[in-house]
């Protein structure tokens, strides 16, 4: 059976093709149909949680069942959030869903590099949550030093459209038309640890 789990080291970087234009047009159309002017509908919460270590204790982790069926515990505090994303690059996955490459800001890039170095080879994953839904799990197998994180699959067209509404496309960060899409940083949102309910998209683990 083909697992939906993808490795950090096995990601293909930037599959440049005519598909990008098709996908980008598609997600923008989806955004318009979803109500591009409705801020409530365009909310995009990205939480990327690492597996919790024994040193963290039960108060700082929550038991879940990953997409591939493995039971584990995730750190309640996300490693990365939407505030660490600088730009994105959409593509369509082989299963028909959508994926995105995320270029992280220096803060997020440093966190990802440190985490991937510490956790590689330990069969740990990063669980990707988008608006409270567990989208996919990415196996931490190699260090990531380029500041690029990939959500390889699992996004709906509407979810991909929300990325298009929120972030510039990679390589166009300085374009006037793209700059205005930079989301405003709200310290209160990132300084407070997310509640366990933020992981509602991940199935709770049953002893």
**The biggest beta sheet, please?**
5 strands, mixed
CATH architecture: 2-Layer Sandwich
- Alpha carbon gyration radius: 16 Å
User: How many H/I helical runs?
Assistant: 5
- Which outline best applies? globular
* CATH level 1 class label: Alpha Beta
Which percent range describes the beta-strand content? 25-35%
Low-confidence stretches: 12-19, 184-196
How many domains? The number is 1
Sequence of strands across the biggest β-sheet: 1-9-8-2-5
Structural class: alpha+beta
| Termini separation | 25 Å
Count of beta strands? 11
Order of helices and strands: EHEEEEEEHEEEHHHE
Tell me roughly what share of residues is in helical segments.
Answer: 10-25%
Mean pLDDT: 76
CATH topology: Gyrase A, domain 2
Description:
By secondary structure, the protein is α+β, with helices and mostly antiparallel strands. The protein has a single domain, classed as Gyrase A, domain 2. It contains five helices and eleven strands. The strands form three sheets. The chain has a five-stranded mixed β-sheet with strand order 1-9-8-2-5. β6 and β7 form a beta hairpin. The longest helix is centred in the N-terminal third of the chain and has 17 residues. About 10% of the residues have low confidence.
